[in-house]
Give the backbone structure.
Amino acid sequence: MAYLEEGYISDRPTVAHALPAERVTFIQRTYAHVAGAILAFAGLEALLLQTSLGDQFLQFMFAGRGNVGLLVMMVLFIGGGYLAQYWAHAAATRQMQYVGLALYVLLEVVIFLPILTIADKSPTFEGQHVIAKAGILTLGVFAGLTMAVFFTGQDFSFLGPILSVAGFMALGLIVCALLFRLNLGTWFSFAMVGLAAAYIIYDTSNIIHRYHTDQYVGAALELFASVALLFWYVLRIFMFTSRDD
């Protein structure tokens, strides 16, 4: 039996058409890989924060460069992210799919390092545990949204074009803020939390309805990316509120 998926014919069943046992196995593998990516990210960040490696990297990236260093990191992150997503989704071998997922985790580690260093080592946030608070809230929101989508069983694939437009608009605002030294403020962080939550709903819906049963590595990458986006802006909100206390 062939399945029509986004304009092409595939002999592989989507999750929605798979046998119950195959569907359960796919979902278990996907979330196991998401958990593994989160643990790898947390472990690498903890290693960098507790050693001098993180400080040395930041000095290399930002010494005398200011926002230019951030722009370079963003360009590398976007370019590397597209490559990682391509490998995780379209690579012919499972090994290359794992390379894609691993590359994306490393890119997130690098892009998060400046903000986590500030949150962890700045006297402004001493004793406030903003990283732990942001992490717990992020996982709680992720779990709540995941359960809501699974319980309703709704197909939220219609969000795809909306999220693409919103994502490009947000990226444009971020680039403008870096180029012209603008402060987007707390309102932007709250808006991005909403965008990240919508991405989690969309990704979870695709896991139920759209992915093929052998695409659990690519599905895990998409979910991890959305969780990382949510964590970034939840952390920023905690940092803003802690600074005002």
